[in-house]
Amino acid sequence: MFTHYIMQLLKVKPKANLVASPQLLRFPLCKLTSVAKGPARQELMTSLGYKEESMLNSCFSRLKESIKTMAESDLTIVNRIYVNYSNDINSSFIANSTEKFGVQVEKVGFNFPKAAISYINRWVGTGTYKRITDILDAGDINKDTMMIIVNAVHFKGTWESPFDYRLTKLTKFRHIDGRISRVPMMTRTESFAYIAADDYKFLSMKFASWRAILTIVLPKTPQGLPEFLERIDKNPNYITSIVKRMPTTPVRIFIPRFKIKTYVDWTGFLQELGITTIFSRTSSGLSAILKNDSETKNIALSRVKQKLFIQVDEMGVARFTRNPNRNLGPPKVPLFIDVPEFVADRPFYFQITLDFENARYEMFTGVYYGPEPEKVNKI
């Protein structure tokens, strides 16, 4: 079910570069599911696609080591559940949350909204080395706020085999509306997982982080991306079915260097998904968050915010400082001559996944419509 709403999200702002992380949002939802009761639990389990308790327990644990590897170089995450400061909060809800669900729980005084917003924004800025700032807006917290989810992510992937930045050239990019602009286009000729199918070209490239893969889907024409989004909205398993049969073959690739910043308020999307009870101020099904003798009888989720910053360039997290006087020798000349080309000079769809033998986990899902002034696209 998440796939449908990710597609709706990507279509909310046509022609805008967007990225979202359904997987990182699942972790705090799994945490809430672990204490939810009645209709709240049923709604969460259904939306998460879980049928058994064991599936809930593996929500984070299966990805834990891979995410830890990514966090050592490429990935910065602040994933938190903030609850209103109170002695009524059950200590067991706070304990071991990061270890079990990849999300930290913290108490903050929402009775002072401006101070709470400032504190959370400052903490997120510090936790992401200022790459993510102002995740909360004025008004996101008021004196009636009980609990919020804040999810801030920066990813700058380091390639298993970096691009040679000396080969990057300004190249034409054809926009969906017919405009042409110029982008710094990176290039490599190597063996990649690649296939052309159904008027699309599919390419998968490995990051240095364990199991991390970038998959790009390139439509045949600059106007083909919306149609592709409709296709995967109707058939969520379409990409996975293609990826499973992609052969490894020599390909000459041209990929634009790009940055995407997106700010998503998931509150309404989750309710459209069917997760409504946990937002109820009178009967949220989350009473287990509170102590048994609590004077407070209900605690509900008020808001869910996610802010992401994705960077794709030649190196990723740079291993050395570029020195124009450093002699790197001539650029490598590829040994392949007659090979297919993958030229991402038009709008495309992409996924950054953690690939296991029997499953793919979408860490990031996005669309790139071409160069635009550096800004944060809000949804």
TrEMBL record:
For this entry, the protein name equals: Serine protease inhibitor 3/4-like isoform X2
Family that this chain belongs to: Belongs to the serpin family.
Annotated Serpin domain ranges read 4-371
Q: Provide this UniProt record's keywords sorted from A to Z.
A: Protease inhibitor, Serine protease inhibitor
Q: Which Pfam families match?
A: Serpin
Record PANTHER family: GH10112P-RELATED, SERINE PROTEASE INHIBITOR, SERPIN
List the top taxonomic levels of the source: Eukaryota, Metazoa, Ecdysozoa, Arthropoda, Hexapoda
Keyword Lipoprotein applies = no
- Which GO terms label this protein's molecular function in UniProt? serine-type endopeptidase inhibitor activity
